[in-house]
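ok so dumb question maybe but i'm new to this and my supervisor (M.) told me to 'just get the structure for Protein translocase subunit SecY' and walked off. so i did the thing. is this what she meant?? sequence i used:
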Amino acid sequence: MSGLQSAANIPELRKRIFFTLAMLAVYRAGVQVPTPGINGEALAAFFQQHAGTLFGMFNMFSGGALENFSIFALGIMPYISASIIIQLLTVVIPQLESLKKEGQSGQRKITQYTRYGTVGLSIIQGIFIATGLEGMSGPSGEPIVLDPGVQFKLMTMVTLTAGTSFIMWLGEQVTERGIGNGISLIIFAGIVAGTPSAIANSIQLIKAGEITLFFVPFILLFMFAVVGVIVFFETAQRRIPIQYAKRVVGRRVYGGQSSHLPLKINIAGVIPPIFASSIMMFPATLGGFIQIDWVQRVSAALSPGTFFYYVLFIGMIVFFCFFYTAVTFKPDDVAENLKKNGGFVPGIRPGRKTADFIDKVLTRLTVVGAIYLSAVCVLPTVLISKLNVPFYFGGTALLIIVGVAIDTISQVESHMVMRNYEGFMKQGKGTGR
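this is what came out, is it supposed to look like this??
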């Protein structure tokens, strides 16, 4: 922590931090700019009525922009969806897989494809949202769209696509010229923006007597305990020892040193909860619009707090943990790279045996990570449905907040280490002269 406090004394790092804050301020200002042609009061009432559906989840990730239907209403979700699609396609399309192995040049091309995919998804989502809004109305029956028609659809599509493209550009600027993790910080800022209203609602509940003052310290203690558990699991690693054989090239000896291969417990990150939450909220979203008997029964059976909801939610989190880990981490490639560089796991033969060993360790870690993610994500639903706690101590939002905070601190520390290393090299050169 003392190292982070000294970050303000480094001019370059201080400039990067101020630039990041300025870009986040621009993003939050854009959230308040509404898209023309919308009845804001009717739309706000609609979102209050459908808070527990997909609309509420997307509104959370957009930082309230969808509820205001601002120019940033789509948020950064199209970019995340395009990134995930490109990652999945690298497994199927050999050309993309070869690009991924080409280093920075290949990564630039993949980034360009991701941008094209983001624009395409934004256009599709913009058209669907504009069409859907024309058929919606507020709780009192007032229309949400003031002047429906082709002109409204085109204007909404262009506005939302431009807004998402601008957010994507902001994220890339923060990554290059700021402290890094630009896209993650934008999502972080959107979620954290709802904290003041959540605190105000909690204070009102305390004043109304729905939450006793005696219960508040236990809630705060429990909240810190949950955050501590998330920090522990997000930073925990299983380090596989790696030994490099000695190689003699001419008169020099290379290798011979020992290292380790770090494997995180939660390799999949927050992708499994996001996918699982989206699927689980889909029946509730349909139940709010389709007044058919069997649709209503399915929506009620899969509503938060029911047995089927917990079973399916946990099952999908476990499935997506294994699926996303299998897509993003290849034990065969790791074992092959170790073999090419003269590295091996002590006691394990290089090649296929090493790949099988890494896969075995990875499977066990994924099981532990899936259990951890399931517990954290189910926790809010249990507290609300069983204990009548009116706010969330877990879930995807808290995972994102804690994970991004840890990554941001690591980025700042990396900049400080690099700056100190460069200063040491300059001092060494000066002494040598």
